[in-house]
From TrEMBL:
PROSITE patterns: ABC_TRANSPORTER_1, ABC_TRANSPORTER_2. It holds the Pfam family ABC_tran. SMART domains: AAA. The keyword Nucleotide-binding applies. GO terms for molecular function: ATP binding; ATP hydrolysis activity. Keywords: ATP-binding, Nucleotide-binding. Residues 4-235 form the ABC transporter domain. It comes from the Bacteria. It comes from Niastella populi. Gene3D superfamilies: P-loop containing nucleotide triphosphate hydrolases. This is ATPase. InterPro entries: AAA+_ATPase, ABC_transporter-like_ATP-bd, ABC_transporter-like_CS, P-loop_NTPase.
């Protein structure tokens, strides 16, 4: 049985001209023990979805279950089984590290000692500072404490809403390693992120935009589904280059991507055709190379075709 089933969930906020359709019929399943990423920009609907799955918000339509329990009817039972780390830190700033952890253990009727094994690897990194108030911790330390608090009642499903937003690159990498290690302990993990490069750390991802799921697949599957030829192009005047590329009949789409422009070509066109076209337009030595799409290219293509 899948650990999480989301079936045609809808959610809207406001009325009439202020109406926002935050979730427009979202469906997917997450298998037991999977590390599942929900990837999408701000406003995609990630938080609304997590709040519904953790029973903090009622959906307007559709059904969803966690561990076989219905998010509306069985909300009390679900609350004992899920761990939730909301986007904005859930910690009590005036309590110390140790007090925060004890507080979360107490509200779930358990003790830190009973469940120490599960959090040991994460908590031991901040334990030397256990008397420091949460408000005085760095972003990376807060993140570790919040994760420890979300785990202290041994949840079977863990929901992490943008846990790496605003955290430095080293802490982000460390955090994903912690998640891989939690996964090895059999916990199902759903994690949302606006960072496309984190997709590769997940077993499967759902790409979301404007309340819709555009694709659900493994990171490799998302990339393999990108069938158009793709080239990276660079020259001195990047702005002019982009304009000229967009005018070329062989170009389906062109957009800035780091120090290059990525150019999606229509079938039948290739890097050498782009090279030729640019030379005809007075570019002397443009750099044009065929590349493999990454998740961000796939996301851009999916967004445009949606
Ligand atoms: N309480 C609310 N009242 C009105 N609109 C809301 C409310 N909560 C969310 N929204 C709107 O619903 C849409 C989806 O928001 P949601 O927070 O679920 O997305 P998100 O992907 O988590 O983005 P973010 O990272 O910005 O929170 C957005 O347009 C947001 O402005």
């Amino acid at each position: 049985m899948p650990s999480v089933i989301v079936n045609n969930i809808t959610k809207q906020y406001g009325k009439k001209k202020d109406l926002v359709q935050a979730l427009k019929g979202v469906s997917f399943e997450v298998q037991q023990g999977e590390l599942f990423g929900i990837i999408g920009p701000d406003g995609a609907g990630k938080t609304s979805l997590f709040r519904i799955l953790t029973t903090l918000l009622l959906p307007d339509g559709g059904t969803a279950s966690v561990d076989g329990l219905d998010v509306v009817k069985d909300f009390k039972a679900i609350r004992h089984r899920v761990g939730y780390m909301p986007g904005r830190f859930s910690l009590y700033q005036d309590l110390t590290i140790e007090e925060n952890l004890e507080f979360f253990a107490t509200i779930f009727n358990t003790t830190v000692k009973d469940n120490y094994d599960l959090i040991k690897e994460i908590y031991s990194q901040i334990e030397p500072f256990k008397n420091r108030r949460a408000g005085k911790l760095s972003g990376g330390m807060k993140q570790k404490l919040a994760l420890s608090c979300a785990l202290i009642h041994k949840p079977s499903v863990l929901f992490l809403d943008e846990p790496t937003t605003g955290v430095d690159a080293v802490s982000r990498k460390e955090f994903w390693e912690m998640l891989r290690s939690l996964k090895r302990q059999g916990i199902t993990i759903l994690v949302s992120t606006p960072y496309m490069d984190e997709a590769g750390m997940c077993d499967r991802v759902a790409l979301m935009q404007n309340g819709e799921v555009l694709s659900v697949d493994s990171p490799e599957g998302v990339i393999d589904a990108f069938k158009q030829p793709l080239v990276a192009v660079k020259d001195n005047n990047m702005l002019q280059l982009l304009n000229d590329l967009q005018r070329y009949e062989g170009v389906k789409d062109a957009y800035p991507f780091g120090e290059y422009h990525h150019v999606v070509l229509n079938n039948g066109f290739s890097a050498s055709a782009v090279q030729q076209y640019l030379q005809q337009h007075n570019y002397h030595q443009p750099e044009v190379k065929t590349i493999r799409a990454d998740i961000e290219d796939c996301f851009i293509a999916l967004m445009k075709s949606a």
